[in-house]
């Protein structure tokens, strides 16, 4: 497994090395030793919840974040493909307000380490897309924040027509409203 840095400060791209043969493939999706070599010993031990979502083509989930200490997560697409988008909301960061998109899929198995202080969302690019999250702390709904996926100030370039968003995501705040809160 290789780990590369992204354009956004502190975001990492984890790139497994799958073994493929006539049976299919085998790949390691996480290696605490390699991860901790990059971020510091014991960081991997802080992950305490794994979750998975399934979405149909064109579905957008996001843009979500957390107040307080934020939330670190590892994100990967176990089945299908998604366009995963991050927006840095850490005011002290050199990449504050910037966004970066990543294609995550079940072909090259790349996944992201998203540190606390980012909005996160994705659009399913295939008929079915399963996204897996490894999260470093329990969910606290009182800390949830969000920005509308179609906010004009963010101007995220979603590649497909939007088929479905949740009521929560459709009613999310604007980027300007979020800036007033953080």
Describe the secondary structure blueprint for this structure:
Blueprint: E1 2-5, E2 12-15, E3 19-21, E4 24-26, H1 32-39, E5 49-56, E6 60-66, E7 73-79, E8 81-88, E9 99-105, E10 111-114, E11 118-124, E12 128-135, E13 144-146, H2 167-170, H3 175-181
Antiparallel strand pairs: 1-2, 2-10, 3-4, 5-12, 6-11, 6-13, 7-10, 7-12, 8-9, 8-11
Question: What does this protein structure show overall?
Answer:
The chain has 182 residues and is mainly beta. It has helices at 32-39, 167-170, 175-181, and strands at residues 2-5, 12-15, 19-21, 24-26, 49-56, 60-66, 73-79, 81-88, 99-105, 111-114, 118-124, 128-135, 144-146. Strands 1-2-10-7-12-5 form a six-stranded antiparallel sheet, covered by helices on one side. A five-stranded antiparallel sheet has the order 9-8-11-6-13, with no helix packed on it. The mean pLDDT is 92.
**Second-tier CATH architecture:** Sandwich
What's the helix-strand series?
A: EEEEHEEEEEEEEEHH
Q: Order of strands across the biggest sheet?
A: 1-2-10-7-12-5
**Radius of gyration in whole Å, from Cα?**
16 Å
Please give the share of residues in helix. Answer: 10-25%
CATH fold description? Jelly Rolls
Number of helices: 3
Number of domains: 1
**Fraction in beta strands:** 35-45%
**The CATH superfamily title:** Jelly Rolls
| Overall spatial form | globular
Number of strands: 13
Q: Quick one: biggest sheet? A: 6 strands, antiparallel
Chain oligomer state: single chain
Low-pLDDT windows of residues: none
- Classify the secondary structure makeup into a structural class: mainly beta
